[in-house]
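Objective 1b. Sequence-to-structure analysis of Gustatory receptor.
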Amino acid sequence: MDYVVTMSSCFFLQNLNVRFQTLNDFWKCLPADLVPIPGQWTHIEIVDLMENTRLLHSELCELLKMLSLSYGPLLLGFFTSSYIGLLISVYYIVNKETFFSQSSNSWEHILPLIIHLQILMFLMSIIVFVSFINEKRLQMISYLRLYRISNLHFDKKRQIKMFMNQISVCDSDQISAFGFFNINLNLVTTWNNHIDTDERSSNDVEIQQ
């Protein structure tokens, strides 16, 4: 089950990541300052490419939203169960002397820990793929902010304003675990804080005993 969730999620996420990167590459093909170049770029061609890129960006954001809604409950269960298992593993690692003394065969206890580490790698791979998508999706903002809108033609100015408004609206369409939390690199910091707190609490209990 873990393999299926991870592989299918990474497949769709990588697909969206490549598509967002392609849109960024299209935008970088536009001439500097969106100025027509005789024999290469006309005003109409520039405006058409800007509009098509904006529409494709909107469609990709919709696909991202659909992926989040469809995979949200599955990712919520996957992340929750994996996080609980990770906390249990950390508890056993901190109390390893008591843990290993219960049985002469230590591999019976080491193997579950290895499995939990593998699941942790699955979680990290999903988080990294989602972070790549967010980076590519918001990279377009940096391109749009490079232009001085006051000096542009009305058609180009309108496309940039519509694009900026569209990105601000789509900013909330992030991949989440059924709306309970967004899946991004902030989760790693949160997990580390919780794990450090659990380890310190266990150590304090041992010292008091």
